[in-house]
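Support reply, case 0932

Customer input (verbatim):
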Amino acid sequence: MKESFYFSHDSNARNDVKILKLRRNLGFEGYGLYWCLIEMLREAPEYKLSINCIDDIAYSFNIDQKIIKSIINDFDLFLTEDDLFYSERLVRSMEQYKLLKEKKSMSGKEGMRKRWDKTNKQNKMIL
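Our regenerated output:
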């Protein structure tokens, strides 16, 4: 079974100034492609992809590479660093998600430890 990856998506993202500019220039096709890029970044190590894979991304979307390059470069939705591009918003969101997930995991482990301690004390009292 393929793992499904979570990421936060603001319900009003379509009204963000940068997204409005994207939609004005590339329509909802550009908006959909933007979210496809975000999904790909979510699946990528450290939520970053190589600029060198734009041709492959365009091929996988069956779209002209110029459109992908425009989405990445022209609307301030992505940052580039060395030969990588990424969404600062996605990286920040995923960091918060990881922290929350770790906190819940620690709380769960602590709760389990307390239950085991309580059970062990009760078992000792019975013996």
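We compared this against your earlier run and they match. Two observations from our side: The longest strand covers residues 48-50. The CA atoms of residues 23 and 31 lie 6 Å apart. Please reopen the case if you see a mismatch on your end.
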